[in-house]
TrEMBL record:
Keyword Coiled coil: yes
InterPro entries associated with the record: AAA+_ATPase, At4g27190-like_LRR, LRR_dom_sf, NB-ARC, P-loop_NTPase, Plant_NBS-LRR
Organism superkingdom: Eukaryota
Gene3D superfamilies xrefs: P-loop containing nucleotide triphosphate hydrolases, Ribonuclease Inhibitor
Coiled coil: 51-92
GO biological process: defense response
Name of the featured protein: AAA+ ATPase domain-containing protein
All residue ranges annotated as the AAA+ ATPase domain in the record: 172-315
One GO MF term attached to the UniProt entry: ADP binding
Family statement drawn from the similarity comment of this UniProt entry: Belongs to the disease resistance NB-LRR family.
Keyword terms: Coiled coil, Plant defense
Length: 635
């Protein structure tokens, strides 16, 4: 009995203590109202200060395109919510606070508000403590690939797209090649592939960089690093490559898209781990050259990419022309500029000389990416007559790009055609074309100032001499200032087809300019694999005069060994001021003793990436005087 009384007494004692503490606590809500409100306002102010500081950090981070941490975003939202609740609490405090005409406090109101204020103060104290962030954001990894929203899919692109995606799913394949002519949409397709690979989570990361025709290793490294959120502080390419390689190896699976590649890349120099070095790194390479893809990797699966047919002919008149019909009256007579792009079903631009006869005002013609075009101007059936007006006499510029099936620019007799106003001609990516002008057309080129020919793999001559209509074969281009013969002319033999022709494949000489072109000011020759001698003067009696030539550029002549052979007095280059030689690895020396006297006005000499170059000048007693004069002009 005593034991039970003891237990009961203890329990009652604890209950009493609890009731006393609870009573005191409850009484505080009534009698410490002012202090509680002051504490609320104080912590409200402190929380707002912390919130403002965090918010400033967030604004700075967003300006840097950094991503805000999730816990920071939640904290800011919680602060906004509690501050709104505090505001409502303060509004409630402004209501009637007393009763009996203001002589007695409203104890019920005071009790409720005090209790709410204490709870809100406690929440604010916790938010102040949790708002002490070490950082509010982190650097984001840029995607580097954004496919076009309005990308229209056609059968060629759908096929290539599916083929690339299926290849990328194969873990055993670590490089995919996409090739095609310029402008067909390789870059667009690569972006769409990259976007698909990222969205379908085929890779942990996808980056896309542009290489360009003149690749800069540091620039490529920086592009990749930026997309990975990596800062390269090293100065040398080697150190940057090591840093980049280490970062890329952190990605279990990554797709690197190298767009617009023109020559074989050394991935090690850039810092891209590949093959056994990192099986998770896959390369998608886009280029115009199929051979480059195969040189890049023996096990490379390449995706053939055909011409896109993504535009239609909106003009009724042009639709009639392309279908061989009769255009509306007056349509051709007023036409001055004609631009045709990506029209896949058109085989001939002007299928009748009668249509061409109406083009009296035509000044500019541009045709590109029309894979089925075989002829531009169809002249079959046209007869020469002095009394008849010449055709195309107002034409000023002619641009033909990426017409892979083009066989003839002018098909049929051309004696009734005069290109007397033509100043600019640009022909690129026409693989089936064998020549540019006939003899009669070349004779009419009195105003031609710029001629560019590149990537025409079947081209043999600039001028095809088959006609025998008086006047001899003395073709002249009196106003030609710039001549650019670029890469991809594997079958090019000579400027003219007869009289001055020389088979480049057997003789290993590029005998371009044996006659005419005295007013040529700039000459660019690029990408001839078999050229050993540029000016072959042995057995020649007539002087080769390039007396107006000021700028001479030679690039990627893989077999090129010397500028000239034979009697140097037959070569006239006395006004040349700039000579630039790039990537001619078999060139051993620039100037022989007898050649130096032909370059007395040379002011600028540039040689780069010529791995076999041993000497600029060959020294001997007979040539020291001429070489001294030449050196004095260089700066």
């Amino acid at each position: 009995m005593e034991f039970a009384s003891s237990i009961l007494s203890s329990i009652l004692s604890k209950i009493g203590e609890h009731l006393v503490d609870s009573s005191i606590h409850q009484a505080n809500y009534l009698f410490r109202f002012k202090n509680i409100v002051d504490d609320l306002k104080k912590e409200d102010e402190n929380l707002r200060l912390i919130h403002d500081r965090v918010q400033q950090d967030v604004v700075r981070a967003k300006r840097k395109t950094e991503e805000i941490e999730k816990d920071v975003e939640k904290w800011i939202m919680d602060v906004h919510n509690i501050l709104e609740e505090i505001q409502r609490l303060e509004d409630d405090m402004q209501v009637k606070k007393t009763f009996l005409c203001g002589h007695c406090p409203n104890w019920g109101w005071r009790y409720k508000l005090s209790k709410r204020a204490v709870k809100k103060t406690s929440v604010m104290l916790k938010l102040q403590e949790s708002g002490k962030f070490d950082r509010v954001s982190h650097t984001t990894t840029l995607s580097g690939v954004e496919g076009p929203k309005d990308f229209i899919s056609f059968k060629p692109t759908e096929y290539a797209f599916r083929q690339i995606i299926e290849t990328l799913k194969n873990d055993k394949m670590n490089m995919v090649g996409l090739y095609g002519m310029g402008g067909v949409g390789k870059t667009t397709l690569a972006k769409v592939v990259g976007k698909e690979a990222r969205e379908k989570k085929l890779f942990d990361g996808v980056v896309m960089v542009t290489v360009t025709q003149n690749p800069n290793v540091k620039n490529i490294q920086s592009q990749i690093a930026d997309l990975l959120g990596l800062k390269l502080e090293e100065e040398t390419e080697e150190a940057r490559a090591q840093r980049l390689c280490k970062r890329l190896k952190n990605e279990k699976k990554i797709l690197i898209i190298l767009d617009d590649v023109w020559e074989t890349l050394d991935l090690t120099i850039i810092g891209i781990p590949f093959g056994d070095d990192h099986r998770g790194c896959t390369i998608l390479l886009t280029t115009r050259q199929q051979q480059l893809i195969w040189r890049s990797s023996k096990t490379l699966p390449s995706t053939a990419f055909s011409n896109l047919v993504d535009l239609s002919l909106d003009s009724v008149g042009l639709r009639e022309i392309c279908s061989g019909g009769r255009p509306p009256r007056g349509f051709l007579e007023n036409l001055e500029t004609l631009k045709i792009s990506s029209c896949g079903s058109m085989s001939c631009l002007f299928p009748s000389w009668m249509l061409i006869q109406s083009l009296r005002k035509l000044k500019k013609v541009t045709v590109k990416e029309c894979g089925e075009v075989e002829d531009v101007f169809q002249l079959e059936g046209l007869c020469y007559a002095k009394e008849n007006p010449f055709l195309l006499s107002s034409l000023e510029s002619l641009n033909l790009n990426d017409l892979r099936n083009l066989r003839y620019i002018w098909k049929g007799p051309t004696q009734q055609v005069s290109l007397q106003s033509l100043t600019v001609v640009n022909v690129e990516g026409c693989d089936e074309l064998r020549y540019i002008f006939t003899l009669s057309l070349a004779r009419s080129l009195l105003q031609l100032e710029q001629l560019t020919v590149k990537y025409c793999s079947s081209l043999e001559h600039i001028v095809e001499i088959k006609e025998a209509v008086g006047g001899g074969n003395d073709v002249m281009f009196p106003k030609l200032r710039i001549l650019q013969l670029g890469g991809g002319l594997q079958n090019f033999i000579n400027f003219y087809s007869e009289n001055y022709s020389l088979n480049m494949q057997t003789a290993k000489e590029l005998n371009l300019l044996r006659h005419g072109l005295e007013n040529l000011e700039e000459l660019n020759i690029e990408g001839y694999g078999g050229v050993q001698v540029l000016f072959q003067l042995e057995g020649v009696e007539q002087e080769l005069s390039l007396s107006s030539l000021k700028v001479f550029k030679l690039e990627r002549l893989e077999e090129f060994e010397c500028l000239s052979k034979g009697p140097m007095h037959l070569l006239s280059l006395q006004n040349l001021t700039k000579l630039e030689v790039t990537r001619c690895n078999r060139l051993r020396h620039m100037f022989s003793p007898s050649l130096a006297r032909n370059f007395m006005q040379l002011e600028e000499l540039i040689s780069s990436y010529c791995g076999g170059l041993e000497q600029i000048f060959i020294e001997d007693d007979a040539a020291k005087y001429n070489q001294t004069l030449l050196k004095d002009h260089l700066h």
